[in-house]
Amino acid sequence: MHVHGKKMKIVHFNDFENYAGAETAIKMMMDSLKTLGIESRLYTREDVGGYQTSATEKRARCLKILQKEQPDVVHLHNTSELSLVPAQVAIKNKIPIVWTLHDYRAICPNTLLFRP
User: How far does the chain reach from its first CA to its final CA, in angstroms?
Assistant: First the structure.
């Protein structure tokens, strides 16, 4: 797939690369995108920073990633440790966002939506 005469590129953001179900789904998606001729790359808390990294530093790292990659779309996944920073940087740079919620973490701390 091409956008404006160039190969389409998607940058994914997720807290982890290898952990559980969401990460498996992301890898399967990236493999499928590759067969369609769509380039994609995953960035994690290792690249952007986790809970111990300031929002300012996360923003700088995200901006550097997006400037380097020049994606057509930013695809967010589970970003508890990354926070909303990748979304904020993408919005500020007018890059469309897709956000897949793989669990209920955005609205429930234990991700299960069960009450104690």
Answer: 47
Instruction: Give all strands (DSSP E) within 1-116, no chain letters.
Output: 2-3, 6-7, 9-13, 39-43, 73-76, 97-99
Pairing of strands 9-13, 2-3: unpaired
Q: Which residues of 17-41 are buried (b: 16+ CB within 10 A; e: fewer)?
A: eeeeebbeebeebbeebeeeebbbe
pLDDT at 71 over 90: yes
Residue type, 60: A
DSSP 8-state symbol, 109: T
16 alpha carbon, distance to own chain's centre: 10
CB burial readout 71-83, b (16+ within 10 A) else e: bbbbbbbbbebbb
What pTM was computed for the model? 0.88
